[in-house]
Amino acid sequence: MERLNQYRILWVLVFFDLPTETKKDRKEHARFRKGIMQNGFTMFQFSMYIRHCNSRENANVHLKRVRKLLPEKGKIGILTITDKQFGEIELFSGLEITKRPDTPQQLELF
């Protein structure tokens, strides 16, 4: 049980601001967005995607995949935080408090 605790489980956050002025820019934006979604990231907010990882090693695999998708232009940020830190998030929709996303239940086979 030590293996799956709130300090070993990680969340990878990818946030980006990519240009969309030209057709090529829009194509690159779509390619990047689709690529991170194919790697298991889900939209948290517009231009911010998150992924749950069971370990640092698993997070590193997904960080490498995101880095391979980076477009030539734009600003991209990648942040890795523990499940404990993510659990402290306060989310609001207007003035109302909203529930944070559920932690995915993943089965690990050895």
Automatic annotation (TrEMBL):
Its cofactor is Mg(2+). Mg(2+) binds at D17. The keyword Metal-binding applies. InterPro entries: CRISPR_associated_Cas2 (IPR021127), Virulence_VapD/CRISPR_Cas2 (IPR019199). Its EC number is 3.1.-.-. The keyword Nuclease applies. It comes from the Bacteria. Keywords: Antiviral defense, Endonuclease, Hydrolase, Magnesium, Metal-binding, Nuclease. Homodimer, forms a heterotetramer with a Cas1 homodimer. Belongs to the CRISPR-associated endoribonuclease Cas2 protein family. CRISPR (clustered regularly interspaced short palindromic repeat), is an adaptive immune system that provides protection against mobile genetic elements (viruses, transposable elements and conjugative plasmids). CRISPR clusters contain sequences complementary to antecedent mobile elements and target invading nucleic acids. CRISPR clusters are transcribed and processed into CRISPR RNA (crRNA). Functions as a ssRNA-specific endoribonuclease. Involved in the integration of spacer DNA into the CRISPR cassette. This is CRISPR-associated endoribonuclease Cas2. It comes from Sphingobacterium griseoflavum. The gene is cas2.
